[in-house]
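Need a sequence for this fold. Nothing fancy.
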């Protein structure tokens, strides 16, 4: 079965997220490692994690995606802010050792006028420093829409960071809303976009997809998510991503503006139109 889930609240712990995911028809989920404002994290409970892992195994869950607070900035102008980001990420990675083998996704950062090259170097430097804290977690750079001075707004910037870090344990999470807003037309030119991704970054580095529609036009650099099929990418465009032979094995995470019922509906829709159903229909 395809690995599909959505963003869930971590407030009630891991078993609760796992059970919620099952109710929604999901077999994975994403969660924030702590309050997005980056405050002190609640300790995780090993018993709760063990119970989650038993459920995940019984239900055939795929990898889960821990999302760093989006307020962290590894390439801030202020050393204090950079250090806070490094400390928070190291602490998250250390806690993720309680559930080894999963993914930790973060927004590369904003260079705030220092220039993209400085941003890239600071991000790579920060990553090299924090990676040893969680050796069993794959760290993912998220592709960004290019709002303000965001770094990671094109494949070249992501590739430059990966090259400088030089570690297999760092990969990429492609956010469909962000790349679309960043100017990659995955609706009408998915093949070309994936060929570019492969040439510049390497498809082997692509580990996860944030599946979101976008409220805005391609190249708008806005980053406003929309429900599946209600935005500018549209259902057909997003199903193209879901069903693409180079992508369909990856885990997909919804970050659409939805309540839990809305997520359940979207997951049902995606499962009904996913590659397995296409293949079954093709065999009839
Ligand atoms: Fe994100
Ligand atoms: Fe995202
Ligand atoms: Zn976004």
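Here you go.
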């Amino acid at each position: 079965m395809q690995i599909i889930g959505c963003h869930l609240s971590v407030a009630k712990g891991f078993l609760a997220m796992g059970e919620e995911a099952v109710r929604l028809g999901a077999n994975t989920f994403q969660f924030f490692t702590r309050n997005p404002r980056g405050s002190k994290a609640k300790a995780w409970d090993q018993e709760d994690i063990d119970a989650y892992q038993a459920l995940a195994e019984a239900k055939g869950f795929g990898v889960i995606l821990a999302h760093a607070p989006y307020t962290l900035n590894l390439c801030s102008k202020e050393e204090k802010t950079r250090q806070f980001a490094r400390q928070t990420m190291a602490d998250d990675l250390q806690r993720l050792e309680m559930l080894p083998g999963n993914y930790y996704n973060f927004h590369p950062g904003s260079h705030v006028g220092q220039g993209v090259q400085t941003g890239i170097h600071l991000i790579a430097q920060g990553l090299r420093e924090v990676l040893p804290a969680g050796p069993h977690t794959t760290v993912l750079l998220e592709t960004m829409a290019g709002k303000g001075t965001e770094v990671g707004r094109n494949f070249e910037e992501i590739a430059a960071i990966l090259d400088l870090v030089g570690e297999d344990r760092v990969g990429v999470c492609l956010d469909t809303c962000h790349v679309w807003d960043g100017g990659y037309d995955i609706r009408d030119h998915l093949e070309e976009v994936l060929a570019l991704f492969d040439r510049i970054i390497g498809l082997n580095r692509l580990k996860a997809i944030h599946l979101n529609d976008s409220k805005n036009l391609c190249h708008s650099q806005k980053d406003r998510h929309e429900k599946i099929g209600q935005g500018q990418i549209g259902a057909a465009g997003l199903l193209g991503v879901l069903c693409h032979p180079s992508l369909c094995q990856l885990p997909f995470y919804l970050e659409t503006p939805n309540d839990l019922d809305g997520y359940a509906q979207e997951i049902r829709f995606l499962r009904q139109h996913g590659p397995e159903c296409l293949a079954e229909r093709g065999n009839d």
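For context: The chain has a mean pLDDT of 95.
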